[in-house]
Amino acid sequence: MNTSLQLEQIRTLSASLERANQDFASSYPGESGRRQPVHTVYGGAHLFKADSKDRLGALAQRSLDQFAPDFLTFAKAIGLAGADSLPESSSVGASDLSAALQKNSDAVKEVEPAAWLAHTIYTRVNEKLRREPVEDFRIDYEDGYGNRPDTEEDGHSEQGALEVAAGMERNSLPPFIGIRIKPFTEELRERSIRTLDIFVSSLAEKTGGRLPQNFVVTLPKITIPEQVALLSDLFDQLEKRTGLAPGSLRMEMMIETTQSIINSEGAINLPLLLRAARGRCVAAHFGTYDYTASCSITAAHQHMLHPACDFAKHMMQVSFAGTGIWLSDGATNIMPVAPHREVEGGPRLTPEQVAENQLVVHRAWKLHYDHIQHSLTNAFYQGWDLHPAQLPTRYAAVYSFFLESLDAASERLRNFVEKAAKATLVGDVFDDAATGQGLLNYFLRAMNSGAISEDEALKLSGLTRDELRTGSFVRILKNRQKL
What is the end-to-end Cα distance of the chain in Å, rounded? Predict the structure, then answer.
């Protein structure tokens, strides 16, 4: 065989491409496989306590018990698949169905899949609210807190840090936690930096230089990369002064202005914002209402399903795909709060008022559920929650998203792995690893979200525990090739 190029020449010619490929791989490492929280609960910093997670969970459970005391009522309220075919909760058929599900839910699944789905989701939501009602909490010094006198915010900055330290000691914090500071505008920059400084310094002093696991600082209303760069610089200084480990302070960017999408020169700004973070950014959160307002959309039409939001979020996906940055959608601002309340010593609610309360809460639950399903369909696996009564629908929407397509995904993955392994073994070229990885990612996300357990994933996927934990479809194929 004749060749014109010598090996040394090829290496010399390829040197610049090799460096470029390495730089590309460094910029786009892909998904880490780490657990991503399914939501972030925001609450005013003046209200945060070390036990806020448990108090929110109790309020969420109370709402579920009051307005959906059984799985049939809940399924119909949020519009679960097949819920319209289920019996009313007060009927004899409902009692028989509940008894059958308690006895053998798998048997019921074969003949009444909608009942199995509703019962499974309701059971898992209740368990979640008891065990881990909040996955991520953001102590808010911005919109949920407002502008207050400096002395008051100074006090709440220190108080918030001390409550976090107490939560660390009692093991009462959510698995993810952080603070949202004010934006780095000229009007608020100094106040924002002071809050950050007081909080981090007070926390480090109280804990001996330790941060909670998965602690982040959220920077809102970003418009230019220099704002992100300043936060990175501040992190450098704070770590040096407080004894925190280098690189331990991480940030989230809030994408809620038109300028954060496209800058003044017409360039896409998102990659520039990420570059300015210098490796400290872990997530980008979309701010629905500030973004739609920045587009001059009137308040009546500012909602999560507006096409302007889909455009911005797709820009985020394109810009951050492969970087490992987590994406989060915004919030539903219609709260599931009953309009009528009984006052101690006052008259009891009328039947009409009780019915209206349930109608209002169910309507808000349904809206929240639909918004989350829209986010999940578009690969935004995290979103904001603003009220404890939204927690039941958050988990129900996430669980139903994965459970409704679980059987089909399981069959596809089993067949795909078998086909791919055979193609590899006989020397054929198998070039659709991306599809296989996508199917594997489905199971990894389903497990991380709590929709299914690892044992369920193993049973349904046909993978071994070691294969599942690798998180890599290509690695699974290579290992099977050796067998």
Answer: 35
Domain 39-47+133-401 CATH assignment equals 3.20.20.360: yes
Nearest to 222 by CA among 284, 293, 154: 284
Instruction: Kindly report, as residue ranges, where domains of CATH 3.20.20.360 are found in the chain.
Output: 39-47+133-401
pLDDT for position 138 = 98
The first and second tokens of residue 56, run together, are 């929110």
Residues 6+ apart with CB under 8 A from 459: none
257 pLDDT higher than 90: yes
pLDDT band at 237 (very low <50, low <70, confident <90, very high): very high
Instruction: Find out whether 231 and 217 touch, Cβ atoms under 8 Å.
Output: yes
Residue 1, classed as helix, strand or coil, is coil
Alpha-carbon span 270 to 177, nearest angstrom:
24
* Residue 411 · residue 451 · CB < 8 Å: no
pTM of the predicted model, to two decimals? 0.93
| Dihedral of alpha carbons 131, 134, 135, 141, sign | negative
Determine contact, residues 451/399, Cβ cutoff 8 Å. Answer: yes
Distance CA 461, CA 41 (A): 32
pLDDT of residue 429: 43
Q: What are phi and psi of 42, to 5 degrees?
A: -105, 140
| Long-range contact set of residues 307-310: C-beta below 8 Å, sequence gap at least 24 | 310/378
> Where do runs of H (alpha helix) occur along 222-268?
225-242, 258-261
Written as six digits, the tokens of 320 are: 């951050």
The residues, ordered by sequence, that sit 6+ positions from 344 with a Cβ below 8 Å of its Cβ are: none
In eight-state DSSP terms, residue 348 is: P
Contacts of 161 (CB under 8 A, 6+ apart): 198, 199, 200, 201, 202, 203, 206
- Tokens 């009953």: give the residue: 338
| 376 within 8 A of 400, measured Cβ to Cβ | no
Closest residue by Cα to residue 449 from 32, 34, 29: 34
Picking from 421, 401, 397, 420, the residue whose alpha carbon sits closest to that of residue 409 is 401
261: its two tokens:
């999408």
Q: Which of 113-122, 316-325, 403-412 has the lowest mean pLDDT?
A: 403-412
Q: CA geometry: angle at 75 spanning 336 and 356, to 5°? A: 40
Asked whether the beta carbons of 481 and 425 are under 8 A apart, the reply is yes
